[in-house]
Amino acid sequence: MVKQTIQIFARVKPTVRKQQQGIYSIDEDEKLTPSLEIILPRDLADGFVNNKRESYKFKFQRIFDQDAKQEAIFENIAKPVAESVLAGYNGTIFAYGQTSSGKTFTITGGAERYSDRGIIPRTLSYIFEQLQKDSSKIYTTHISYLEIYNECGYDLLDPRHEASTLEDLPKVTVLEDPDQNIHLKNLSLHQATTEEEALNLLFLGDTNRMIAETPMNQASTRSHCIFTIHLSSKEPGSATVRRAKLHLVDLAGSERVAKTGVGGQLLTEAKYINLSLHYLEQVIVALSEKHRSHIPYRNSMMTSVLRDSLGGNCMTTMIATLSLEKRNIDESISTCRFAQRVALIRNEAVLNEEIDPRLMILRLQKEIQELKDELALVTGEQRTEALTEAELLQLEKLITSFLEDQDPESKLEVGADMRKIHHCFHYLKKLLTDKKIHGPSRAPFSEVKDQVNQGPSTEEEYKKLREILQQRDNEINILVNMLKKEKKKAQDALHSSSMDRGEPRRSQSSPFPPGNPEGLRTLPLSAPTQAQDSSVIQYRSSLLHRKTGVREEMSLGRQEAFEIFKRDHADSVTIEDNKQILKQRFSEAKSLGESINEARRKIGRLKEEITQRHVQQVALGISENTTVPSAPDPMEEKLRSQLEEEKTRYKTMFMRLKALKVEIEHLQLLMDKAKVKLQKEFDAWWAEEATSLQVNSPPVNLFNHVKPFPQTPESQHKRSQLLSNQRQ
Ligand code: ADP
Ligand code: MG
């Protein structure tokens, strides 16, 4: 592999207002390294960090301006990394920048359009396509998705995510084995055999991340997310496995604490984020210094996790995302500065390991033990004395870590000592029988349930009933309020009917038919042309289960309120739009499927005609007694060229159908996610309403109690419309 520095790229997010021009310029004339110049506006330049400079220039490998498409980002930035991962090297791509500068958009993609899909889905698509092409090796792909929040790791693919808060989830911890390899305890690895399965995992993790987020805890700006594709390949019959990892990292917002001016919990978070970004920088700087023997990987969770994928024998790429508006100038400059420091790393300067004498001794001790074992085996010496307490404990530890190790290739090595081997078997047997006896009842949820079922006292029952009564009262009040508003709206609509360009979404094209309270279940589950394998369905149903789980608890009144809430929510427009696109794609897929079948039949017919023609020609040759045909048969030639044409057509249509299948899957997942989000925002709104009613405030100024949700400008607009409606 070519030795190189860490690649740094810049991407400028499109600005909403056009008057931001003149704040920066991109100079691409300098062929080798383009540069980005940030120009300080006059009013800012005076007092800017005690510095009279009016412009700053930064060099990048490439700079992607506002109009750059996701496709170009993938082709230029991610594809080369994916290629090196396929070749067996580790790789990391991370997005760095202040909140809202486009990190998530770049790494994962936009929430609405298929064309906005980001580096992760495109990379998955590319990798699976390449794996399919290469039949010389056996490939296995696993996915993990880790979130680091306040220096604690959480598994975004943990099924318990849906039922617990972040704090209750088991934390992912970093373990180091004697060979200094990093292992992440409590981080699940999921095998993905197809692009769709991998995509489902991505969306599952993203939905879990969203669920855990509350207005108070905007985890997405304060946490780092690492989506990792683990690839292993083996030649058939060979014992050597080649492994490579690709980390796709969406870092926390890089804004500085001083600027956010916050206290308490927020400050702790900011400290952690800044600290971990600071440690990332330290590691990067250390890697860039020649002859450094100590790389401070252990200082933070993130650098520990990325340890074998920063510098060294791997490709590391950073994307500096910039939101170049006047108020963001200083943050943008600091992002660019960070990028310049990152660019200093050279792979030849790398020392990817820390040398620790303690670990060295451990390793040598292990080797001595192994040699002793081997010697005992060769000399036939049998040991009969019982194993010591410490030896037994050690063995059990080995077995536990072996059982917990997700790696299908992991081995349980106890040496050539029959006593130990016997003990392992006994221990495993014991574990198995224990499991049979206690079996599935060990699941955490059923334990809770059991406790609940231990006959509730009448007092409890009474309390419950009272609560339900209170809930119903609230419901009625909320609904009455909504009804009033609806009535008002209807009147307004009547008055201003000349202005009406409204969308009659409710009755005709509501994404969820009103007569169907389980509307969320009515998702089309698969394209008519595709058969999804069971594991995909399993992931999706896990997503859906969460939603239906919530729905089942909904009373009728609440469901009705949900319908109205939904209709006024900006996200339903997205859902509706995507639903229309989906419909089109489905019918396109269907007719493509038909054309493909037609083409296949035609190919069959042409082949048959060619054979017949051939047989005829040979028969003719025999009857005319000319063994060698004088000239090529023009008829056969024509048939052959028709056949070739048809084959090409078939292939093109087939590829298109395959791409459609992925697009359909992606759109469905986007819709699922939007629906979960909608439900979540409704639940929050509902809870808020109920609380405010309980506090006994007159239920008139309903929306004054509404906590603002993170919303699209569109939905905020709608909400303010609602507010003004109310005040009239
Ligand atoms: P971050 O993850 O850095 O906080 P996001 O990726 O969430 O920022 O971007 C903030 C908003 O800007 C999102 O609504 C996103 O869709 C939009 N956005 C970001 N980058 C682009 C881009 N290149 N083109 C269009 N929209 C973008
Ligand atoms: Mg983000």
Structure description:
InterPro entries: KIF6/9_C (IPR056524), Kinesin-like_fam (IPR027640), Kinesin_motor_CS (IPR019821), Kinesin_motor_dom (IPR001752), Kinesin_motor_dom_sf (IPR036961), P-loop_NTPase (IPR027417). It is found in: Cytoplasm, Cytoskeleton. Keywords: ATP-binding, Cytoplasm, Cytoskeleton, Microtubule, Motor protein, Nucleotide-binding. One of its GO terms (molecular function) is microtubule binding. The chain is α/β, with parallel strands linked by helices. It has 21 helices and 14 strands. Helix 15 packs across helix 20 and helix 19 runs antiparallel to helix 20. The chain is globular, with a radius of gyration of 31 Å. Bound molecules: adenosine-5'-diphosphate (ADP) and magnesium ion. The site of magnesium ion (MG) has 4 residues, from helix 3.
Features of the shown structure:
728 residues, alpha/beta, three-stranded antiparallel β-sheet, 53% helix, 12% strand, disordered C terminus, binds adenosine-5'-diphosphate, binds magnesium ion, Kinesin_motor_dom_sf
What is the gist of this entry?
The protein is α/β, with parallel strands linked by helices and 728 residues long. The protein has helices at residues 42-45, 70-86, 103-107, 119-133, 195-212, 219-222, 257-260, 264-288, 301-305, 329-342, 357-379, 389-404, 418-438, 444-453, 458-495, 505-509, 534-552, 556-567, 570-623, 634-694, 713-727; strands spanning 7-12, 24-27, 35-39, 55-59, 62-64, 90-96, 138-149, 152-155, 173-176, 182-185, 190-191, 223-234, 241-250, 314-322. The site of magnesium ion (MG) has 4 residues, from helix 3.
